[in-house]
Amino acid sequence: MSFLRFAARRLVEMAATLAGASFLIFGAMHLAPGSPASFLLAGRSASPEALQAISTRYHLDDPFLLQYLRWAGRILHGDFGRSITYRTDVSRLLADRLPATLLLVVMALVLVVTLGLLLGWIGAVRGGAVDSAVLVSTTVAVGTPSFVAAVLLQGLFAVKLGWFPSGGTGDGVGDMIWHLALPAVALALYLIGMLARVTRAAMADVLGHEHVTVARSRGVTGHHVIRRHVFRNALGTVLTTGGLIVSTLLVCTVLVETAFSVGGVGQLLELSTTTKDFPTVQAISLIMVGLFMAVNLVVDLLHPLVDPRVTLGSRKATG
């Protein structure tokens, strides 16, 4: 299957999946207990006329399907609606908070890829006590949830030692990186352990293959064998975890941003869910689904480049 044909087919599938996800996201918010009107009233009693005015303004009394179609039509034109809590456009809220979240995710992703691949490489190649140390450390990392890591890091390095800020995002790129250092470590810790273990297992498996033994018997240097024959062949297995890594980063960002009071999209999602801010929750959830599918598409397109044995459209490539 040609590259363009495969990409076009996947884009059509993504559009259909995104449409289905949008319906589920919109419906899930309306099935949740409570209503935006109760939050807007802040617990105060209101006359039927006042309740009707709120319902009319936000179209809460319209049939569900009509509400969904109206909302989906606005989304297609780039209009995510107006926040019930903040009384402003959701697009403006996202634009204000997105830079902090993107920087946090990028910092965490750099840590995950760098340390995860390095630890997995070292564990598989060195073996012995070094491998045991890698296994123990990665087991601890995998067994530490992001919100637990956030509390521990904040308590030790921010509160007790005072080396890093305990929260906030700072001003300017440099200050933002400094404020987001601890949140990035907390966000990346679990995934570093997971990627290291996947890399180690994949490389250890390839080390036992016949072509590696043949290469060594022909006098090929050890470093060249590891880089050219072992790591390259193991990279296909490692790449398949890319979608899981990104989806975990997106989900855990909510917990980490809340713990460190980072004014990003994750914290906005948590606050909007609490206050029944339907338009904001729906917009953020839909964007997260879209990002996850985009990452999976990129992984599928890169897989044949990493592993020539995989063809576009094959079961292995799309898995």
Can you give me a brief rundown of this structure?
This protein has 319 residues and is mainly α.
Structure description:
With 319 residues, the chain is mostly helical. It has two domains: 3-76, no CATH class; 93-318, Orthogonal Bundle (MetI-like fold). It is 77% helix and 0% strand. Helix 10 (210-217) packs antiparallel against helix 11. The radius of gyration is 24 Å and the shape is globular.
List keywords for this structure.
319 residues; MetI-like fold; 2 domains; 15 helices
- State the name of the first-level CATH class of the largest domain: Mainly Alpha
Tell the overall outline: globular
Cα-atom Rg, whole angstroms?
24 Å
CATH architecture of the largest domain: Orthogonal Bundle
Q: List the uncertain runs.
A: 315-319
Report the average pLDDT across residues.
81
Topology:
Elements: H1 3-31, H2 36-41, H3 48-57, H4 64-76, H5 90-126, H6 128-142, H7 146-160, H8 172-179, H9 181-207, H10 210-217, H11 222-239, H12 242-259, H13 265-274, H14 278-306, H15 315-318
Helix pairs in contact: 1-14, 5-6, 5-9, 5-12, 6-9, 7-9, 7-12, 9-11, 9-12, 10-11, 11-14, 12-13, 12-14, 13-14
